[in-house]
Amino acid sequence: MKLCTWRVRDITNDDFFFLPQLTVHGDRVQLDVINPKREKSGTYKVVMKNAQGQDEKLINVNIMDVPTPPLNVRADNVFQDNCVVHWAAPKDNGGTDIKKYIVEALDTTSGTGAWSEVAHTAGGGDRQIKVEHLTPWHKYRFRVRAVNKIGPSDPGEMTGDDILMRDPWGEHFHSSCNGSNSLPPKNINCTNLSLSDPPDPCGQPDILDWGPDFAEMAWTPPASDGGADITHYVIEMKEKNMNQWVEGKTLTVKEVQDMGGKIKGKQDGLVEGCEYQFRIKAVNKGGPSKPGPPSVPMIAKTRFREFPHKNSLMTKQKVYLLPLRCSPASPEGRGHVRHHPEEGPPHPLRHLVRRRARAFRRVDQER
Questions:
Q1: How confident is the model over 331-362, as pLDDT tens digits?
Q2: Of 168, 277, 280, 310, which is most buried by a Cβ count within 10 Å?
Q3: Topology of the domain comprising 206-299
Q4: In sequence order, which residues have a C-beta less than 8 Å from that of residue 38 and are 6 or more positions away?
Q5: Where does 71-164 sit in CATH, by number?
Q6: What stretch(es) of the chain map to CATH 2.60.40.10?
Q7: pLDDT tens digits, residue range 165-186?
């Protein structure tokens, strides 16, 4: 009679119901691991006994799974649209070779909350990769997945602050060109280098005019242009009950109107009936400013109502409130409508109002 047993590490209560099963097939022994998991990999010792003695055999069991997350994810060499992401190999490769690494990025400035793949390595031996085609002046977070033949690992994410995509000239060259110990990159002539920072924030937009699909607004320019001419302004807008600001129209300095202390611009493409707020960013070659304070809410709707009139002169005319006054009553007890110079130039529809006033006087005389 043969007795076959096995031994491997200490057994816990969780393992009791998932113990390996041994089956003897002639001169072979089959070891079946119930509910295989990566942590059950290891060396199993099989012992066979009978009345004449015993024998034993070591069996290496490798239960493959996806890798554990990569370690120590970080980014450096940051420029306006690219950077280099580094990481360390995962603690466990899942029992099989790693085929590649996948780098994912989260644009925290856009506020979408969606991670997207931005790069992947050609093989499993790489520990860094250059990530390109990022959005200048946006902030990013990075994470890395290891991939073997079973599949991708859970992500290993960077720690610390978000990475701001900007060229290092502003902070690095300011110090290096002013005599500090840090040296500027090669082939850069500090005497010809124009250093600039982003402008200060713009003022709060004032809504001047609106319609069902547009809004005209004016705002005060930044107090400081950051050391470089402002090239354009960006209007950002947000609908009521929405937490996300979205980029609207970009206006060059030639497309805005200087109103003497204020800048005027127009945002098109609004949806009729929706309520909006607006804010402005100024941009120079150093990057965009922080957004200014938001405007008061406005509803995209018709400001002046148009209506048909039986008089051809009034067809599709806008409704105006006319600045009219009555003179003191005449001895006959009747007044008449007249224009007052202090109220500005005569209104273009004044003749219609006077005609109506004369009709009222005729009716009064007939009575």
A1: 444 444 454 444 455 555 556 556 666 665 66
A2: 280
A3: Immunoglobulin-like (2.60.40)
A4: 63, 64, 65, 92, 94, 95
A5: 2.60.40.10
A6: 71-164, 206-299
A7: 888 765 444 444 544 444 444 4
